[in-house]
Amino acid sequence: MLSKARIAVFVSGGGTNLEALLKAQESGAIPHGEIVVVLSSTAGAYALERAKNHGVPGFAVPRKGMDQTAFEATLSEKLTEYRVDLIVLAGFLSILSEEFVQRWPDRIVNIHPSLIPAFCGKGYYGLKVHEAALSRGVKVTGATVHLVNEIPDGGRILLQKAVEVLPGDTPEVLQRRVMEQAEWILLPQAAELLSAQIAQEKENHA
């Protein structure tokens, strides 16, 4: 049996993508990975309660009141403590520095609620993405999972899934459909894809 990749999930809010990951893990859909810690950039984020409900340690590392260096040093301490191999950004709204990202080459994965390169970049997050899609009048949107590198919204695209835009959609309705039909499917798939690679690398170096 290969050693599992140890996964940290970074969150900032309610944690719906985290919930999808935890349920996927419990159903056996991430056989090569294990979520070992959840870190929130917001104190009191409901995502931490979700982690607790699934028996996963969760900690707030509030971005507010900390400079970038102290914030990332605290994150790094927790990552070291839990011997993390892979970071999954699941609704994480804080910016990570180029230096931090470079310490985790091809080991940070993010999800964006559009088909990159559409509706991505500075200012495109949360409902703003879906508002932009509706105002542009597109018929298809979706979600993208990509590896993070030093280029904003850059990195290698791992997975994409298209979602239909329907007449009468509001940003909230469209957001929910993209979550259900794309984000909650793609993120566990990406976590397993990378975990399987990491587990094999661990085996090769054992």
Secondary structure: elements and pairs:
Blueprint: E1 5-11, H1 16-26, E2 33-40, H2 46-53, E3 58-60, H3 68-81, E4 86-89, H4 98-102, E5 108-112, H5 127-136, E6 140-147, E7 157-164, H6 171-205
Parallel strand pairs: 1-2, 1-4, 2-3, 4-5
Antiparallel strand pairs: 5-6, 6-7
Notable traits:
206 residues, alpha/beta, Rossmann fold, seven-stranded mixed sheet, 40% helix, globular
Q: Can you describe this structure?
A:
This protein has about 210 residues and is of the alpha/beta class. It has one domain (about 5-205): Rossmann fold. It is built from six helices and seven strands, in the order βαβαβαβαβαββα. It has helices spanning about 15-25, 45-55, 70-80, 100, 125-135, 170-205, and strands at about 5-10, 35-40, 60, 85-90, 110, 140-145, 155-165. The protein has a seven-stranded mixed sheet with strand order 3-2-1-4-5-6-7, sandwiched between helices. Strand 4 (about 85-90), helix 4 and strand 5 form a beta-alpha-beta unit. Helix 1 (about 15-25) crosses helix 6 and helix 5 packs across helix 6 (about 170-205). The chain is globular. The model has no long low-confidence stretch (mean pLDDT about 90).
The CATH H-level superfamily is Formyl transferase, N-terminal domain
Q: Which structural class best describes the helix and strand composition?
A: alpha/beta
Number of domains: 1
| Gyration radius over CA | 17 Å
Q: Which shape, going by the Cα principal axes?
A: globular
Mean pLDDT: 92
* Uncertain ranges: none
Lateral arrangement of strands in the main beta sheet: 3-2-1-4-5-6-7
CATH architecture heading: 3-Layer(aba) Sandwich
Main sheet: strands, sense, barrel: 7 strands, mixed
CATH topology label? Rossmann fold
| Helix percent band | 40-55%
Number of helices: 6
Q: Report the count of strand segments.
A: 7
The CATH class label is Alpha Beta
- What string gives the helices and strands in order? EHEHEHEHEHEEH
Report how far the terminal alpha carbons are from each other: 12 Å
How much beta, percentage-wise? 15-25%
